[in-house]
Amino acid sequence: MERTCQDHFKRRCWGIGSGFGFRVVALDPNFSKFSIATIVSAYEKDKHKAILLDYDGTLMTQTSIDKTPSEQVISMLNTLCADKNNSAFIVSGRGMESLG
């Protein structure tokens, strides 16, 4: 925490979300977003891939009452898992009982 506060004036900050979900994200000035082309190129080059997907907010909208994955999400996960070189993981703060 001290180290982060010391470097605060050097970081770029963004506010994300609203209400109780509001967060401030501080990134190093050298941080850059990967382009889709860079991601695709790295994916095609690497033999073994670990793919981590966040459940709420990535696979499912956070505002959704029904948290059951859509057929499109299931299809995408099946496609990822069909490749023996992929290891796909779904990350969630929810308990197993709420995920079904």
TrEMBL record:
<dbReference type="GO" id="GO:0005992">
    <property type="term" value="P:trehalose biosynthetic process"/>
</dbReference>
<dbReference type="Pfam" id="PF02358">
    <property type="entry name" value="Trehalose_PPase"/>
</dbReference>
<dbReference type="InterPro" id="IPR003337">
    <property type="entry name" value="Trehalose_PPase"/>
</dbReference>
<dbReference type="InterPro" id="IPR001830">
    <property type="entry name" value="Glyco_trans_20"/>
</dbReference>
<dbReference type="InterPro" id="IPR036412">
    <property type="entry name" value="HAD-like_sf"/>
</dbReference>
<protein>
    <submittedName>
        <fullName>Alpha,alpha-trehalose-phosphate synthase [UDP-forming]</fullName>
    </submittedName>
</protein>
<dbReference type="GO" id="GO:0004805">
    <property type="term" value="F:trehalose-phosphatase activity"/>
</dbReference>
<comment type="similarity">
    <text>In the N-terminal section; belongs to the glycosyltransferase 20 family.</text>
</comment>
<dbReference type="GO" id="GO:0005829">
    <property type="term" value="C:cytosol"/>
</dbReference>
<dbReference type="InterPro" id="IPR023214">
    <property type="entry name" value="HAD_sf"/>
</dbReference>
